[in-house]
Design a protein that fits this description.
The protein is mainly α. It has one domain (25-136). The chain is 90% helix and 0% strand. It has helices at residues 2-47, 57-94, 98-140. Helix 1 packs antiparallel against helix 2 and helix 1 runs parallel beside helix 3 (98-140). The longest helix has 46 residues, at 2-47. The radius of gyration is 22 Å and the shape is elongated. It starts with a helix and ends with a helix. The mean pLDDT is 87.
């Protein structure tokens, strides 16, 4: 009996650790995309209205949209994770909701992956903006 209780306690501890790491990952995705979006807004504020730098505005604006998508995907991931955990709990006690739990679990993971991919793509678009900025300043010289 004690061995079974020890296994249950170990399972509970591992589950708490998994949820903690997932929470940290989702929060990190939200933070990185939001901070990057703020940086792009500051960048756009410095180049807005300067005709020589207008080539950088479009890719910088695209990266802003992409970072917003990444942050939204991470928020959706948090919501999907909540529903998945709720469904897993219901399944545990009522034997209902396993399929729903697994579907929302997968949706949460896909949304988190989308948030990471959006950050990477947004950074690449930001680099295009910076590259066009450096090219336009080279042409202006």
């Amino acid at each position: 009996m004690r061995e079974r209780e020890a296994k249950i306690q170990l399972y509970a501890t591992h589950t708490q650790a998994i949820v903690g790491f997932a929470t940290l990952a989702i929060n990190s995705i939200i933070l990185t995309n939001s901070a990057a979006a703020g940086t792009v807004l500051a960048f756009l504020g410095t180049i807005w209205g300067k005709p020589a730098l207008k080539e950088a505005i479009a890719p910088a604006s695209h990266s802003l949209i992409i970072f917003a998508v990444g942050a939204t995907a991470a928020i959706a991931s948090a919501c999907f994770s909540y529903v998945a955990q709720l469904s897993y709990s219901r399944f545990q006690f009522r034997n209902k909701g396993e399929i729903v739990a697994r579907c929302f679990h997968i949706l949460a993971m896909v949304a988190a992956a989308l948030g990471v991919a959006a950050f990477i793509y947004g950074v690449m678009e930001g680099l295009v903006a910076l590259n066009s900025l450096s090219m336009s300043s080279t042409v202006a010289s």
